[in-house]
Design brief:
By secondary structure, the protein is α+β, with helices and mostly antiparallel strands. It has 6 domains: 3-192, Hypothetical protein af1432 (Orthogonal Bundle), CATH 1.10.3210.10; 198-334, Beta Polymerase, domain 2; 387-478, Roll (Ubiquitin-like (UB roll)); 481-553, no CATH class; 564-638, no CATH class; 647-726, Alpha-Beta Plaits, CATH 3.30.70.260. Strands 1, 2, 3, 4, 5 and 6 form a 6-stranded mixed β-sheet that branches. The longest helix is centred in the first third of the chain and has 21 residues, at 153-173. The termini are far apart.
Length: 731
Amino acid sequence: MDELFEDLVSTVKKHKKNLNLNQLKKAYLFAKEAHGDQMRHSGEPYVVHPVNVAKILIELGMDVQTIVAAILHDVLEDTQVSYDDVKKNFSEEVAYLVNGVTKLSTMKYGSKEENQAENIRKMFMAMAEDHRVIIIKLADRLHNMRTIKFVREEKQLEKARETMEIYAPLAHRFGIRGIKEELEDLSVKVLDPYACEQIGEYLAINKKARQTLLDNIKKKIEDRLLGENIKSTIDARVKSIYGIYKKVYEGDRQFEEVYDVYAIRIILDAELACYNILGIIHDMFTPIPSRFKDYISTPKSNMYQSLHTTVVEDSVPVEIQIRTWKMHRTAEYGIAAHWKYKVGLTGMKKDEFEKSFEWVRRFLERQQNSDGDEELISSIKSDFIPDEIFVFTPKGDVKSLPKGATVIDFAYSIHTDVGNHTVGAKVDGRMVSLDHVVKTGEVIEVITNEKSKGPSKNWLRIAKSSEAKSKIKNWFKTVDREENIAEGKHEFARELKKNLVTLTGEQMESFVAEVAAHNKFKTNDEFYAALGYGGISLFKIMPGVKELFQKKHRNFDRTRVIEDSELPVKARRGKCVVIENIEDCLVNFAKCCDPMPGDEIIGFVTRGHGVSVHKKDCKNAGLCENVEQRARWVSAKWYSGEIKGKFSTGIEVLSHSRPEALASVVSQLTSFRLLIRSVVAKEIEGHRTLMRFSTSIGGLTQLNKVISEIMALPGVISAKRILSNSVNEKK
């Protein structure tokens, strides 16, 4: 047997796992033959990847069926092997796990977002039946991120962003701390290498002094507990790179203000001893009162339990974590620590384990009523974020909500009817508004009225959790359907008119049917109703609507993408744009749409001023009635190599009125080293602040990242791209 398999066997022996080596050998030989001459970007044989995924799962303590499935996890997608082949050679259980992990690469969807969303849906449906699917998938993503340096830069950024937004939050939600932290660290090194370098330099400074400090604290605690005849295991650690990054670069703190950079973990045999040790620690060191958290009596939603307290030693804050061995295994491995419940080898009861998976089934149920793939991705971002808060009902029941959740989210977490009939709320005995952002420890009493008219559409902006948003949308789906249809018709007709799309009678009905089908609605009325109650965004679908109109109802076809191989020899390769059939021309960027790399573009041959480049969905692009003008539109595309330079754009931000609202957005923009040309900010109706910025940016990828980071700021309601020359317009 070759070195690769021997390495796998060594991992099994190192972690003292009782796995059937004959089954592993059979799976390895099967995968090796199936993948044949396939190579990875690193130049290694492809089979190296599944073997490394299997090693990660061995370290997690998974069973032999999971390890075998990991070795085979890419054969359905990348080779000629079928589901039946896997089932015949191994088992139906292994085939199911492999199929659950397999991506839908053979299926074609309208966009990258649709493909990603469909993959996630399939993964969730599979893990609702068997949670080992997600554990394999996380191990797969971890090894891919460990070797990401071998893929092109554009792909690195795409995978790192996807990992940060989907897979790291999933690892957190399933309680697998080691994988979560490594995924975050690997991703942020790709997304913001400069900041990670700064963090590395900070940690390198006084490294010896820091280690001495941790060793001294550890020794003090060990001596004290030994004197008390308390058996314990104590270790020390430094916070993960992303943990520091999040506090410093996203939380706008100084390095010195991050209280839990250094941590001591105390592991005990009994739960009662945890509270006794807490008293001893507070007797030995000076505690910071606001930094105590009891996750034993109030576990996190991912089953995590521990006591956290921060103490000061030599003017340095140090976090102390106290837990039992059972809590420690759950904290490190999450659901991977409990797979053995099926054969009765763990202390967790089967019904307890199933209860911990209820959120997966609730998530899938909500997605059946969702209005698009974007909502699915948004749900993951809002529901699986690591930060969560714990609030109480008047009866003392604990509710876990995402950070930033409001009274509306709390009301819907109790029951749909409670949320729909909410008219007010009290927090710690005092009346608050429905957009009050709840905090850990608050006691919330929801005031309802059966005669209330139901939720307001404004609640969709106030709610943070996808559960609340889904229930609010369902209300509007079933109530006032005719009114929603009428409102949707009015909005759509108005938007078409604004974009110079003119159709009448049967043509209009036929066109709307095409638009509805493209957006996955069965009838025109369903499409109109979704527009009316806010289920889909007209702003987001209009580029596709205009493109469909051009394709179906205009002679000029502006949707074809020109490949490099199709370009004539005399094509002009300018600073960053390739124009078809035109040589040595001046290229200008249209002010009416501010095109930038990442946008689909088209060129217009002007008289004496070269080619004016527009976005393909620009209202001025290709909508000329004049035949001569229509003939002057030419195909254009961005240069496929590196594009240097900055492109004008505007960014509009809507925030709740706060003293630091403008400053926090400006700080975020400057953190990306963007030059701000002009700023307009004013308070508008509803205690909100509208801010507009004119700036220059490297392209659509960077712009989307900037907008994503702005959306994460406290109090921000929305952030979007606008024209740079509209920043100073009245609104």
